[in-house]
Amino acid sequence: MNKTTIIEAKQCVGQQVTIGGWLNNKRSSGKIAFLQLRDGTGFIQGVVVKATDEEMFQKAKSLTQETSLYVQGLVKEDDRSPLGIELEVTGIEVIHEAVDYPITPKEHGTEFLMDHRHIWLRSKRQHAIMKIRNEIIRATFAFFQDRHFVKVDAPILTSTSAEGTTELFHTKYFDEDAYLSQSGQLYMEAAAMALGKVFSFGPTFRAEKSKTRRHLIEFWMIEPEMAFCTHEESLEVQETYVTSIVQAVLDNCQIELETLGRDTDVLEKIKAPFPRITYTDALALLHEKGFSDISWGDDFGAPHETAIAEAFDKPVFITHYPTSLKAFYMKPDPTNPDVVECADLIAPEGYGEIIGGSARIDDLALMEERYKEHGLDHESYSWYLDLRKYGSVPHAGFGLGLERTVAWISGTEHVRETIPFPRLLNRLTP
């Protein structure tokens, strides 16, 4: 008998197949048992008819939630199913019976579900979010590699902070101090000077004591860096990239978006180019909306970003922030040194910043001046200064936070559901 998966069973209509999976749920009448089966690739309904096989019908009724099993059956078309098929069951082989599975179809509190994250992942909703995350990652690699970017892996253990902050996780590296990376950007700049256009994809860590729905302690970043690239050219790459990953999810995750109840009309509007507003103009907009407590030079918080985003139906770039608010490596605007050539991309619907990027300082004297202003240790950062000494070129880059992007595209309220095993202020397990 043909052994297949649920997702591949669409190609097996009219055939007898065997599927290895788990019992997600079940219901039965006096004559028919409906088995909701999952195997990781998808979900399918198995139908057992009492009149056809009394013994198998009783066996189906006795199955417990999350029991693992092999199911044999005939694949039949069914327009009511998201996959368009169902399984007419002809055989059931129990592999392992699950007893007292803790996550039942009833409502459970968030902390309970987080304590059981290792099995909460099996639920239909979490499965859908993880599949969307996977599609965004797949589409990311396709986007950059199709455009001749080279994937480069940045180190996780570093001797310095990428942005000069103190929100770092400290560890010992034999007899030296080391820190968990908060960004691979500085290393991507070095790689761009060797390979032209590069991107990294890896975990980053922020020792920020925040409990908001937008924050994780450990999260994943996509960080492209481009030599011979202006700030304007970088913005064009960013909006094209975001457009492409949204379209990839729309094309390849229709079942998952439907499972989550996502309004796809909103996503269909996400097409480049994106609107742009300067920090100064955004501040004026906030004042019009009644935010009288924020002045030029103050950073925007979540309520401010949400209010700005509400004025647009696409992601919006907020550009040219005050120099004092941004990292030491950002390039000043040549027409106004009080602001830098940078942009934050704010997602619609209150999801906040998903990208931060800028042109980088490529002038050696100006970078040395920034080192002094920010009190950076020349010995620790000497290699970064070398990039301005030996063949410096204009370059720019950005970082996209994967979990916030998954949350926005999938319509998930809290980022803790967008990573398999979230690390939060009060949570290091499971």
Give a structural overview:
This protein has helices at 54-62, 110-115, 117-120, 124-146, 185-195, 231-252, 254-259, 264-268, 279-288, 302-309, 364-374, 378-389, 402-410; strands at residues 2-4, 16-28, 32-38, 43-49, 68-77, 85-96, 150-151, 157-158, 170-173, 176-180, 197-205, 218-227, 276-278, 316-319, 332-333, 336-340, 342-347, 352-359, 395-401. With 430 residues, it is of the alpha+beta class. It has two domains: 2-96, Nucleic acid-binding proteins (OB fold (Dihydrolipoamide Acetyltransferase, E2P), Beta Barrel); 117-417, Bira Bifunctional Protein, Domain 2 (BirA Bifunctional Protein, domain 2, 2-Layer Sandwich), CATH 3.30.930.10. The strands form four sheets. An eight-stranded mixed beta sheet has the order 7-11-12-19-18-17-14-13. Strands 2-3-4-6-5 form a five-stranded mixed β-barrel. Helix 4 (124-146) packs across helix 6 (231-252) and helix 4 crosses helix 13. The radius of gyration is 26 Å and the shape is elongated. The mean pLDDT is 96.
CATH third-tier fold name of the largest domain: BirA Bifunctional Protein, domain 2
CATH architectural type of the largest domain: 2-Layer Sandwich
The CATH homology group name of the largest domain: Bira Bifunctional Protein, Domain 2
Give the averaged pLDDT, no decimals: 96
Spatial strand sequence of the major β-sheet: 7-11-12-19-18-17-14-13
Number of strands: 19
Query: Spans of 5+ residues with little confidence (pLDDT < 50)?
Result: none
- Assembly of the depicted chains: single chain
Radius of gyration: 26 Å
Largest beta-sheet characterization: 8 strands, mixed
The share of residues in helices is 25-40%
Kindly, what is the distance between the CA atoms of the first and last residues, rounded to a whole number of angstroms?
Answer: 39 Å
Give the number of helices: 13
What best-fitting shape do the alpha-carbon axes yield? Answer: elongated
Number of domains as seen in the coordinates: 2
Going by helix content, strand content and strand pairing, the class is: alpha+beta
| Residue share in β-strands | 25-35%
**CATH class of the largest domain, anyone?**
Alpha Beta
Keywords: Aminoacyl-tRNA synthetase, ATP-binding, Cytoplasm, Ligase, Nucleotide-binding, Protein biosynthesis
Protein name: Asparagine--tRNA ligase
Pfam families: tRNA-synt_2, tRNA_anti-codon
GO molecular function: asparagine-tRNA ligase activity; ATP binding; catalytic activity, acting on a protein; nucleic acid binding; transferase activity
